[in-house]
Amino acid sequence: MYSILIVDDDPVSQLMLKRILGQQEGYQVATAMNGQEGIQKAQEMHPALIICDWMMPVTNGLEVCRFIKTHPQLCTSFFILLTSRTDLDDRIEGLNAGADEFLAKPINMNELKARVRAGLRLHQLNQDLQAQKQALEAELAEAAGYVRSLLPPSMVSPLRIESLFLPSRQLGGDCFDYFWLTKETLALYLLDVSGHGLGAALPSVSILNLLRSQSLSGVNYAEPAEVLTALNNAFQMSNHDNKYFTIWYGVYHLPSQRLTYSSAGHPPALLWTAPSSQPASCQHLKTAGFPIGLFGEEEYTSLQCEIPSGSLMYILSDGVYEIYRPDGSIWGLQSFERLLHDRPEAHQQPLAQILHEIQTQTCTTAFLDDFSLLKIQFP
What we know:
Blueprint: E1 3-7, H1 11-24, E2 28-32, H2 35-45, E3 49-53, H3 61-70, E4 78-83, H4 88-97, E5 101-104, H5 109-150, E6 160-166, E7 174-180, E8 185-193, H6 198-212, H7 224-234, E9 245-253, E10 258-264, E11 269-273, E12 281-285, E13 303-306, E14 312-316, H8 333-342, H9 351-362, E15 371-377
Helix pairs in contact: 2-3
């Protein structure tokens, strides 16, 4: 049975509405003599529909309406504003306050019944949509938890690896991993699938499982260019819902302190030597190559570099620095690099502190793109 709340300081109108809607129509009807009492009863009973007089002392109908429509547990209640006002400006003011419908005084009983039935149908539809939305959010949260469970834990020895992952939605297209190919050879990568949400998360997880299981046929996973070429052959966007992805893939050989790497349209990894001193040196590690899936015959190359002892390296997605500031400009990779250069102590802080610094500089708390950042501290 639907519940209806009548808020009116006129006892005669109250009695008439309660008799028609309660006794004749069979709804559960409650009444309130003023706006304050109406707000209190609405919070107690969460009515499906509210009929509220516009002109009341202390708290008028517009104030009641604004409260109801901004309250997260009451905003789906259908709100009918009862008024003798007929001016267009008055109607506009009522709509701006959140009113869903108007009922003119003196009240026509047939119009009253019709508007109430229509309002309750819309309320039920809204409730159904809310339930579906909550169910979808619960499923997405479960899926997001599964994706997070696939990401590797921090590593403390012989390298220290810390990660930070913030999807722009509950599910994101970023993914990363690091695993030992041999006892002395570590593979590590970060990829970014185009788009957001479930459509980006599914191929991202698929690629992670493929690389982790080393299931690409005939590929030497210690050769980054081979890995990227094989991925490009397997994930042409024409066969994968027009999705492509960027990736940075590297292999570190512990005894020789040599890093071999290749990238496909991805931001460079940032290698910092002498990170705790001034001036620290930053080297961009990147190779030429289009994103995976754009062109079928793309050739990828690998480069090598020696990693000085005590160096730090950051592998990141573009969501770390492509952030819009309040003036509309983009913060940019140079700004992220400058943050680390000007604050050498940041290298020794957790990634959560670097995230805080980024949010402070960009004046943002919510990111429009997935934020993925790896910090590797070499022995």
